Amino acid sequence: QVKLVESGGGLVQPGGSLRLSCAASGFIFSNAAMYWYRQAPGKERELVAFISTTGRNTNYTDSVKGRFTISRDNPKNTVYLQMNNLKPEDTAVYYCYVSRFFSWGQGTQVTVSS
Predict the structure, then answer these.
(1) In this predicted structure, what is the pLDDT of residue 30?
(2) Among candidate residues 31, 21, 19, the one with its CA nearest the CA of residue 74
(3) How far apart are CA 52 and CA 98, in angstroms?
(4) In terms of C-beta density within 10 A (0-12 exposed, 13-18 middle, 19 or more buried), how is residue 43 classed?
(5) Which of 37, 65, 102, 104 is most deeply buried (CB count within 10 A of its CB)?
(6) Helix-, strand-, coil-residue percentages of the chain, each rounded to 5
(7) Could you tell me if residue 85 is left (phi over 0), alpha (psi between -120 and 50 degrees) or otherwise beta?
């Protein structure tokens, strides 16, 4: 079955960096576009970043452009989200998602606070 497992979250000070990972299994990873979403307390889940099957095409929500980078390693069945210059408003649970199978990971908490 399709499985997505996120890791790499934690507590970081404003201006700091984190790299999230999402390990995928149960499907042909190289055939699937991947997404990162986030959900802050009391808010709707929002799309953060998208990456195409080959990694050539990416897209970001405006609030993270220039700070976050999505990438993938197809042989390792893993998608990453490098987050730099983190701000308190980036605090949320971050999820990876594969649209082809409508599947979500369990999420990883990112907290940006001094």
Answers:
(1) 96
(2) 31
(3) 11
(4) exposed
(5) 37
(6) 15, 50, 35
(7) left
The span from the CA of 61 to the CA of 101, in Å, is 22
In 3-state terms, what secondary structure has residue 80? strand
Q: Is residue 38 within 8 Å of residue 81, measured between CB atoms?
A: no
Write b or e for each residue in 68-84: b if 16 or more Cβ atoms lie within 10 A of its Cβ, otherwise e.
bbbebebeebbbbbebe
CB of 8 within 8 A of CB of 23?
no
pLDDT attached to residue 78: 98
Distance separating alpha carbons of residues 37 and 92, to the nearest angstrom = 9
Token output for 31: 């055939």
